[in-house]
Amino acid sequence: MLKNDTFLRALLREPVDYTPVWMMRQAGRYLPEYCATRKQAGSFLLLCKNTDLATEVTLQPLERFPLDAAILFSDILTVPDAMGLGLYFAEGEGPKFERTVRTEEDVAKLFVPDVNTELKYVMDAVSSIRKGLDNRVPLIGFSGSPYTLACYMIEGGSSDDYRNIKTMMYARPDLLHRILEVNTLTVIDYLNAQIEAGAQAVQIFDSWGGSLPFGKYQEFSLQYMARIVAGLKRENEGRKVPVIVFTKGGGQWLEDIAATGCDAIGLDWTTDIGQARRRVGDKVALQGNFDPVALFAPPAAIEAEVKRIIASYASAGEAKTGHVFNLGHGISQYTNPDHAAALVAAVHRFSGKKA
Length: 355
Ligand code: 1CP
What we know:
The protein is built from 15 helices and eleven strands. By secondary structure, the protein is an alpha/beta fold. The protein has one domain (6-350): Alpha-Beta Barrel (TIM Barrel), CATH 3.20.20.210. The strands form three sheets. The protein has a seven-stranded parallel beta sheet. Strands 2-3 form a two-stranded antiparallel ribbon. Strands 6-7 form a two-stranded antiparallel ribbon. Strand 2 and strand 3 form a beta hairpin. It is globular, with a radius of gyration of 19 Å. The two termini are 22 Å apart. Keywords: Cytoplasm, Decarboxylase, Lyase, Porphyrin biosynthesis. Catalyzes the decarboxylation of four acetate groups of uroporphyrinogen-III to yield coproporphyrinogen-III.
């Protein structure tokens, strides 16, 4: 039995005693203990593939802060790597792929990787983390969205204008749809395998769907996420497994996202959470929406922001249900861990958690 199920209850819009909180990318380079373990592993990818060390870094932020959920330590790019594209990290440059998917021939070679062989190390990490957690808090599994994965597969790394994928979208939409089809089948298998291995909620990271024009977002990103939601195993160990859809920059499409059948929508910081709740609050829970850059400000300013978000959510209905506090995007590697501690404490204090 879970000792703290506040996070799962909030996602299902059941009553909670206080607002649960976790931080996007809560295990990472802003924690000195993470940097030490990563050094021991040799590289980021070796860290992801080492069951014991991946478990260790997943638990590190929970040792420091009273977080209400853990998130699997892995990366969305494990999927294109398992498709044979050759993921590597160039020092100081972020993720890169040895091979890209841009031509008819590249697309013909794509395949749905076997989640029980190529991606077995991820499932091993999930089982090991569940043991390490000992039911303290729930474990979140995750995947990139088909469109966000395609961005990396086609661009070959990060991009500031998504020139290659968008050119394909306008010039050869059929080709992009074929890639998204393979990615969708892959993500369904991948998330279901994580659920079977012990993930108690799952999040789809559509980090770059918000770069699409109106209409194209629905056709090239949302449609495929809706198919994933419909294809997931939504119950395990006798409990519902909630699904969170996070489209960064998706604030204008909340009604459409709610219609995918997800349980919760992740919000970046550009949307007012009270307004978002008035738009979709009787259909889904909301997760967000603190600007991660505000963590550079002094604790008093961080607390004021936390208060504002909690009050905005409460202005649109009952406070103690349906909100998971989070950052609107990943925590920066330059964040002071004491400021992250101030955020977590403020969420609990302002939402009435008993000491
Ligand atoms: O050197 C290092 O230690 C690498 C830094 C790092 C870390 C800590 C990367 C490379 N990935 C991760 C872990 C990670 N990535 C987690 C688990 C950790 C946790 O949350 O506690 C998760 C959930 C992700 C998800 C992820 N990876 C996303 C979606 C969320 C988002 O930020 O939008 C994306 C887009 C990635 C790709 C990626 N992997 C790593 C980096 C630096 C990036 C972003 C590159 C870019 O901006 O294009």
